[in-house]
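Researcher: Structure for this, please.
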Amino acid sequence: MTEFTHGLPPYDDGNTEELVNQLDVAIARLAAANALAEVSPVFEVIDAVRPLMFDTRGLETLYARIPAIEAAGFFGGSDWDYPQTLVPSLAVRTVRHGDPIATLVESLSQIRLLAVAKGDFSHPSVSAEHANHFLAQVMAMNLDIVVSDLQESDRLRPDRLGYAVQNLYHYMLEHLGYQNLLEHLVAEVWRILAQRPVQVNGVKQMVTQIAACLNSPDTLVGEASEDARQLVDAVFGPTAGCREDPGFDIYAERLASMDDATLLQEAIAFAQAMHSTGLVSPTSQAAYGLAMMLERGILYSPPVAPSLWRQLRLPLCDAAAKKIAAVFGNRRSPECFLLADVLNVLGRPLGVGQGNYPTCQSTRALSMWAYNTPAELLRVVAWAARDDEVVMRFEGNSISSRELGTGLATEPPVDVDAVSLLTVPHLDRVYFEMGRRSIGRGEDPHKWVNAEFHGDHVGHGFRIAVDVFTGKLKDFEGFIRDFYAAYHPFYNGNIPVINPQPAGIAVTDSATRFLGWHAITIQRLALDPSQIMRVYFFNPNNDSGQDWGQGIVTSTQGNGELYGEASLPIAQFASRLYVFHYDPIEKGETAIIPSDEVDLAMNLAQNSWASER
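Model: Predicted structure, token format:
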């Protein structure tokens, strides 16, 4: 089989019957081939699908043939064969930015889910409700190509794929309706904002789509919900003086003519909009970071004020200035962008995200320093920004990032805040070098690296669930019991988590398939409003709301979480934990941990990520 390489055949109204016949023949050949062998002529079906993507009649043809396409095994052997595990955000990326083959397969998958949602096709692993929810989220994230013209990147896609995708979403919108779509989009925005991320550009784009939808004369959305209006007002018109979004010049004239009482009302309205949503209208998003930093009271810590004074006067090296300008532009100086995000990170330590890069350890360190030792964060920022170097000690020896090659991230991050942009490449290299120097000691390198990298407040006790040589489980029951005895308030003498501790989890998808190891921070343990003991933790991977299978869905709001925290009942959390630090002097008695709790955590692990271990 070879990839589809010839040009897109022109769509001809007169040859619809021929195109449909080609599709039917291709489906029949695929079904016959699958009956005999694993290798199937799927690209023949893709060739036949492509010209039918450009008008409603062609999509109706594909819709009607979804049962035959599924039965022929078109999705077999791929992630699309398990539609219950598909992720809306990844689907958006595939259909908008994937290669032509992946875009067309994803498009067919979404047409299949539309048939499930409408009750015209029954799939054994996806309910109509799940399919409808999935498509609503995907549509919400692609709302721009429905309510406005294609972006340049869409128009320039090969074989006019951007137009095919736009036609697909117009078609699905006819079936799903705007109102349902808006409700899901608004709910998604509020769900993300509940985590108070530092980077909110994507959220503001979603709010812009909501505003465009509400204000479009061609859409019948009914009564817009108060939640939608609150979001739009927070971004575009948070006060009486700028309710209709008049622009900066006119608003500046209005401010000049306001008396003190009116100005006070304007300021109060700005503050209310900002604190209720976590969004700031085009004044500066750093205003929220500054407000939250002041509310934390960290200026009472003696080293913080002089560290901020140094930051205000900090000269940036050429490399740092160029990095910031390349990502954030030239509307402000690089120093200004960096200072703004210093305030944002100090104000929301649990809102830092790693972007699309495997640098969870470095991002976790930034969060822990901002949360616990802000002067340490400011020192690392100063080194990276001024000197283009970070120097850390490891077991008495200095490690300079300048002398090291790349770490886990081979490319510099671009979809992160300015603090992460400058520091993470250095921290990543240092962390990688510490790990290299710890190899060969017979135990997991994290035992030594985490304490040296994150600081002295990391517990000296260390526990890992797997053998570093074989990868198999090692005294797993003892591992679970030690975690409960060290962290569960009922069994450790009611001692809270005093300093947030680094830990590692085995990440699984909604089908419980193991995806990899991931760095998090255990923030605290407490009873939730339903009197269930939960672990509250920081997850640096940009969105902490995740489905790990077996009914384990990380919560970000509604269960006692503070902004930026994720949480799980302790047994569910323990079932995905594979490494943790603790204070060996302040650990309870492992024998008193209830066996049913231990068994629950062990069974969840052994039926998911640990099934082959």
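Researcher: Any notable elements?
Model: Residues 1-13 have pLDDT under 50 and may be disordered. Residues 188-283 form one domain.
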